[in-house]
Amino acid sequence: MSKTTQAPKALRGVGNFIDDRFHLAKMGEKNLRKVFPNHWSFMLGEIALYSFIILLVTGVFLTLWFKPSMVEVIYDGSYERLQGVPMSEAYASTLYIDFEVRGGFLVRQIHHWAALIFLAALVVHMLRVFFTGAFRKPREINWLIGVGIFSIAIVEGLFGYSLPDDLPSGMGVRILQGVILSLPLVGTYVSMFLFGGEFPGEDIITRLYMLHILLLPALLLALIVAHFMILWHQKHTQYPGLGHTNKTVVGTPMFPAFAVKAGGFFFFTFAVTAGLSAFVQINPIHLFGPFTPTSITSGLQPDWYMGFLEGSLRIFPNTLDFDIFGYAVPVAVLIPGLGVMGLLFGALGAWPFIEQWITGDKRAHNVADRPRNVPVRTGLGVAGITAYGVLWLAGSNDILSETFSINLYLTTYIFRVLVILGPIIAFIVTKRICLGLQRRDRETLEHGYESGVIQQLPSGEFIEVHRESSDETVEILSSKPTITSTALDETVDDKGVESPESRKGMGKLRRRLALWYTRDNVSVADVEAHSGHHLHHSHSTEEQDKEPAH
Amino acid sequence: MTDKTNNDNNEPDETPERVVGTPAAEEHTVAEAEAERSHEGPYKASETHQRPEEQQRRGEKIASLWFILAFLGGIGFLVSYFVYGPEEIADPRISQFSNALLGGTLTLSLFGIGAGMTVWARNVMPHYEVSSPYDELPSDEKEKSSFSAFFMRSADESGFTRRPLMRRTLIAAMLPLGIAPIILLRDTGPLPGDKLKVTPWADGRRMIVEGTHREIRPEDLAQDPYGMISALPLMHEDDYGENVHYPHGISLNDQAKSVILLIKMPTGEDGQVEWGEGMTEERRNWTHEGIIAYSKICTHVGCPAALYERTTHRILCPCHQSTFDAANAAEVVFGPAHRPLPQLPIGVDSEGYLVSTGDFSEAPGPTFWDYAKD
Ligand code: HEM
Ligand code: FES
């Protein structure tokens, strides 16, 4: 390599100017040297960030023409099919963006696609954090911030979807209002205050607009900044591997390699969003027509991230609705409309603390779990995904019914059963798979990997030759942590007396959960790498007994 | 797991150095330092791996090719902008084409930059995997106790801890201010009152076909192929005051709560409609010659229950598939809605037009807490 290039004079000038005022050289270098572990799954959070940036940029562009007004006008713009039709100014201005602003159609579609991708990336990112246990101490607060980002992002998306005031979007608002009305005692008041009177009123779009372009993005931005500051301070988790310990992080430094890779990845994300917007039409509001509270089309589908709520509303039976003293409590609206969301975010937010309570694990973790090594958590995660997936599918039961010619009402019954059975089966199956993988890992650790070479022994027996795994694999396999819980070892003191704590209600519950959480795991503590018989070709058959008991 | 680990035996630094990436040189042994002399990169030679010059040169070429493509894409985008003017994109087909043109060139330009940067990182830059220590997060005991001693001493010094009168009055002073923002939201909307229970329907109000100004006679229904008409109340000049005009003559708020389904029930051989058990004497009196009127707004969460199937006389809400039996007081036969669609009592006026003879039997629209109270 040639000599180091001198910093150009202009750059030095700027650098000195800034440093003279902020004393930044040391901190700057420290941050440029920050290490980012390499794994594809770390890019999920990045996709979320990049799509958020795309949303901010395209959103600002759209505000230049969008009119958040519900004043009814007779359309006389250039889209012929709707000329003479009464509609809100909001809808008319959206048509204007589509058909009178060059590139407006594109930017609107980019904005919508980016929103879909943003939420999808959030969900998948969150799943990766969940399944790898990256939410554990010291990262619980960042997990909670993440849950906050996720919940606000859903609401932000719903409000954005409502702005153009086309038929499906207005129907979304109608459903929102119906759900609000179902609140006991305060429902009618909340609805009146939010809508400035009855539905639809003349204020709601103006108000949702304020929330969508000002308040919620500001909150999101603040939370995302906090998310990254914490991440920056605590550094990433890393997957197990050679040299990857709870004390040392291994990866690519920020400057130059990570910066360039991440920059490239930003452009890829943007390119995919732009490509979709160019060739795959999304939310063609001009085909839907303006909102009127009196008409509807069938087969309406909300954006994907609202699908699970739509599904819940569809399959929740009305049998639990009740009256007290003549006042109505529509449970079939309250639970699917609000309860399911609450349950989702509540469970997500509480999980790190529940897990910590069960295991009593107060240590800091920087090395991520391999999902198979924590079967109960992984099983619960898959059960959650299954429940979500079933609800999501139930949100398009009319389309499924039509496509597969199944009776519409029958699909509802099927989904009611599936939403209960599905997660249970998913949990059991996932846990079994995890344990199976654990056993295979143990075997690989002990015997090396199957090389695919078949050999015949002098005795005539055929065996497959096992080769020694790489040091990296051995490190990954042998570093498998054993799952334990303090609830299980504290209970009996040295005189054999059970501690009173573990016999009382909560203590007992905790012990039960701990048993359930730690049971069945395969330990590798007693295995020495490559000590198994397959590596020694001249082995006797008795050695087969050394196989770990399954 | 990680892509190509090549820092395998890179011992973590033993020094209790807590600053990330302090220049590595300080920690080097003499031998390492010597090896380092030939290496001018910012990270230890043991951790970085130069790409062969050959590969770097090829990388540079490929990356540049991508960047040139991106440049052309960008130019294409700028040109596409001017290909179709604002008048031309008014045609949906051209608008769609212009969208694909702009989007396609933009994609090319973005993708080219992304691809070029990736090639650059992969083929021109040395391959890195460096290590650095995680910060020890909890502060040590000394720092902690020093902090807490300082904090409490300062708090005592301020008097906040030792002067309860002042402390409590300050908290009291803050309280009303805290409530103020909530109070200020009071005027965001009116109180509910009976707004959700009262609609423009009243004795003698005529009805119009939704979306038109056409008033309705019973014969219109008999001739209607679907046996069903979606209708709104006919509003008069003075209903909204002089200066208020709505494109359909009726405000959206009133549309939202007063829209109805007029259904002509099929009659049996005796010329009578077979009503279900829920159709009390009173309810039958609210019908006219087999025509019955129900609120069109679903009692679940308020979508228009717009689908009517004549043979089974069922009304279906497309949102969550609540299904109501039109022959039986619109009782719920399936789905999440809990109460029937309210019925509107109807009759005909002296000129033979259909009119309402009163308001709905119950509050229309989504079920709310006190819908059943007066
Ligand atoms: C706008 C939204 C979000 C952005 C832009 C974002 C971005 C990121 C990025 C880039 C990382 C580092 C890379 C990675 O670990 O994948 C990260 C880490 C993390 N994220 Fe998010 N994230 C968002 C939302 C969420 C959500 C919804 C959750 C969970 C509920 C979450 C929880 C976490 C946690 C706990 C970490 C630290 C884990 C680690 O260091 O590996 N984040 N975030
Ligand atoms: S709104 Fe009619 S079924 Fe939900």
How far apart the termini of chain A lie comes to 56 Å
Question: What is the ordering of alpha helices and beta strands of chain B?
Answer: HEHHEEHHEHEHEHEEEEEEEE
Question: The biggest beta sheet of chain B, please?
Answer: 7 strands, antiparallel
Q: How are strands sequenced across the largest beta sheet of chain A?
A: 1-4
- Mean pLDDT metric of chain B: 88
- Counting DSSP H or I runs of 4 or more residues, the number of helices of chain A is 20
Strand content of chain A: 5-15%
Which term fits the overall shape of chain A? Answer: globular
Strand content of chain B: 5-15%
Mean pLDDT of chain A: 91
Describe this structure as you would to a colleague.
The complex is a heterodimer of chains A (550) and B (374). Chain A is mainly α and 550 residues long. Chain A has two domains: 39-345, Cytochrome Bc1 Complex, Chain C (Up-down Bundle); 370-483 and 521-550, no CATH class. Chain A contains 20 helices and eight strands. Chain A has a two-stranded antiparallel sheet with strand order 1-4. A two-stranded antiparallel ribbon of chain A has the order 2-3. Chain A has a two-stranded antiparallel sheet with strand order 5-6. In chain A, strand 5 and strand 6 (327-329) form a beta hairpin. In chain A, helix 4 (89-99) crosses helix 5 (104-131), helix 6 runs antiparallel to helix 13 and helix 14 (375-394) packs antiparallel against helix 16 (408-447). The longest helix of chain A is centred in the C-terminal third of the chain and has 40 residues, at 408-447. The radius of gyration of chain A is 29 Å and the shape is globular. The relative contact order of chain A is 0.09. Mean pLDDT of chain A is 91; it is low at 536-550. Among the domains of chain B are: 3-7 and 25-128; 205-356, Rieske [2Fe-2S] iron-sulphur domain (Rieske Iron-sulfur Protein). Chain B is an alpha+beta fold and 374 residues long. Chain B has helices at 30-37, 53-83, 92-124, 141-158, 164-184, 218-223, 252-258, 281-285; strands at residues 48-49, 127-128, 130-133, 205-209, 228-233, 260-264, 291-295, 307-309, 314-316, 323-325, 331-334, 343-344, 346-348, 354-356. Chain B has eight helices and 14 strands. Chain B has a seven-stranded antiparallel sheet with strand order 12-7-6-5-4-14-13. Chain B is extended, with a radius of gyration of 39 Å. The chains are: A mainly alpha (550), B alpha+beta (374). Chains A and B meet through helix 2, helix 5, helix 7, helix 8 and strand 4 of A and helix 3, strand 3 and helix 7 of B. Strand 4 (248-253) of chain A pairs antiparallel with strand 3 of chain B. The site of FE2/S2 (inorganic) cluster has 14 residues of chain B, from loops.
